[in-house]
Amino acid sequence: MTATAPRANTTAAAVRRTGARRGRGAPYAFLAPAAVLFALFFALPIGYAIWLSLHKVEVKGLGLGKGARSEVWAGPANYTDALTDPELLDGALRVLGYGAIVVPTMLGLALLFALMLDAERVRLASVTRLAIFLPYAVPGVIAALLWGFLYLPDVSPFFYLLDALGLPQPDLLDGGPLFLSLSNIAVWGGTGFNMIVIYTSLRSIPAEVYEAARLDGCSQLQIALRVKIPMVAPSLVLTFFFSIIATLQVFAEPTTLKPLTNSVSTTWSPLMKVYQDAFGNGDLHAAAATAVIIAVVTLVLSFGFLRAAGSRDQQGDPR
Amino acid sequence: MTSVTARTSAPAAGTTPGAAQAPPPTAGRPPLRRRIALLPTAALLLGAAYCLLPVAWVVVAATKSGRELFSTFTFLPGTGFTRNIADLHAYRDGIYWRWMGNSAFYAGFGALLSTAVSAVSGYALALYRFPGREAVFKVLLAGVLMPPVILAVPQYLLLAKADLTDSYLSVLLPLLLSPYGVYLARIYAAAAVPADVVEAARMDGAGEWRVFTRIGVPMMVPGLVTIFLFQFVAVWNNFLLPYIMLGDDEKFPMTLGLYTLLAQGSNTPALYTLVITGALLALLPLIALFLFIQRFWSLDLLSGAVKS
């Protein structure tokens, strides 16, 4: 063993060197499928959307025959049209209100449940974890459909209860309650997923950290507030982030509730307006402009948020 | 709240130092283990009840005939379950099962391919240092943030130019690259595949691809199962893409099929019972999948891998 060791070391070093040289192209080869897919289904469509948003259809004569309709440069016209469109503004405001209810409620519950799952001597943790996570597996359409029926006075147990107690019965599919109803669907569907993300990061905290905190005389509550929450802050940032994005993109739920109520218009959320412009009104250029605006707003918000979170992390970092 | 937490945790705080001093830790411990943390357990049970409520409702509602649905108490089981199933089966020559099969195909096949792409990309991002790595990661992040609609509308138009809209491929192809899946794979790979093990395999003369398939993939399996599950659910739940891409209801996934049923139901309420029964049957495969996958669920494995 001792005799061969030096030789083995040198060959190992040699192999490592050739391995490194040989492996230099490997990461690029590994990333090739993702790169091709990205180019075809992300970069190209985005480029095309931007191109569309800067053009418009010009109709010559009666618009009949070949070449009568051509796409010409429109400059920022589609954007000014979209930005001054009251429907888009209303949709954006509705989604903001909706997000202001959904995101804090959902993440608050997710964090609470994650901490409870991680607490000591909790019973039924795996069963309840699965139950709370379950709605994540329910498609938004089906979730909206189930809750939609539960909002109907003839079907819902809530109305049965209210009726039995002699309380007034609100219309859950109109006006202010509609926001709460839609928010509830999102909270119901999203809490479990976010709980799992936070819980995963809780579980990856080394046990020694708790031991240390306990030796310092921290109670469970103090450990949760002063150790656990700060240590899972990155995953809270992550979940916040994804929740905002998901909220801005709300589409399936209001679309599904539409058949059940007249209060959800075809342009209830900005994305629904994009769909309506593109396929309802056939105005692809206006749809593209609106879509680009939504994307830009999303990206600016996200990167701004990430930067703010990142700089705060760096300030906290002793280095 | 504070009082309960303080009560249950006070003895723990008292005994742990004793347990930390190694010799006989068993003396005072077993009774404490059996004590239940009431408040967290109660909170979790409430959460579980809230999450199961609509599921419980749909189970009961699916047993009701069309008349019972609007007339009897919500949680009173009805008498029409077999009739509802038969009606659903007969509706448009059993198109419901076709939707179910389509969903399984889109989700199963799509998730499998997408997991493979995520695995190889995430592995590359986690275990190699190469020029452009940060750029790739930033682009990936931008991809995660990109609203699907800004993608879906031009994707539709571009696929229309390639004459691919209203086909299975039109729903499958755009979903193959999941930036979020790659992101997760990167995290799992960084946590579960130790760089020194990879280095050791290289020293033994294994090529990069071989290192990935023989060392990387087996170590990443728990994470990959999770990514597969996430992708499966994402595709199964997807509504926007098939809504935009498909016109022929023979190719519809479950979500879109049920949506069209519900939309028609506003004119013909008889369809409501079909929608409800259909929703219940659509939930069953995923619930089964979740229960089945529980044992492969990587959370505990993941945290174990992080600790070791």
From TrEMBL, chain A:
It holds the Pfam family BPD_transp_1. Residues 92-305 form the ABC transmembrane type-1 domain. InterPro entries: ABC_transporter_permease, MetI-like, MetI-like_sf. It is found in: Cell membrane. It comes from the Bacteria. PROSITE patterns: ABC_TM1. The keyword Lyase does not apply. GO terms for cellular component: plasma membrane. GO terms for biological process: transmembrane transport. It is a multi-pass membrane protein. Belongs to the binding-protein-dependent transport system permease family. PANTHER family: ABC TRANSPORTER PERMEASE PROTEIN, DIACETYLCHITOBIOSE UPTAKE SYSTEM PERMEASE PROTEIN NGCF. This is ABC transporter permease. It comes from Streptomyces roseolilacinus.
From TrEMBL, chain B:
The keyword Disulfide bond does not apply. PROSITE patterns: ABC_TM1. The chain crosses the membrane at residues 36-60, 104-127, 139-159, 171-194, 215-236, 270-293. Its main location: membrane. Residues 100-293 form the ABC transmembrane type-1 domain. GO terms for cellular component: plasma membrane. This is Sugar ABC transporter permease. It comes from Streptomyces roseolilacinus.
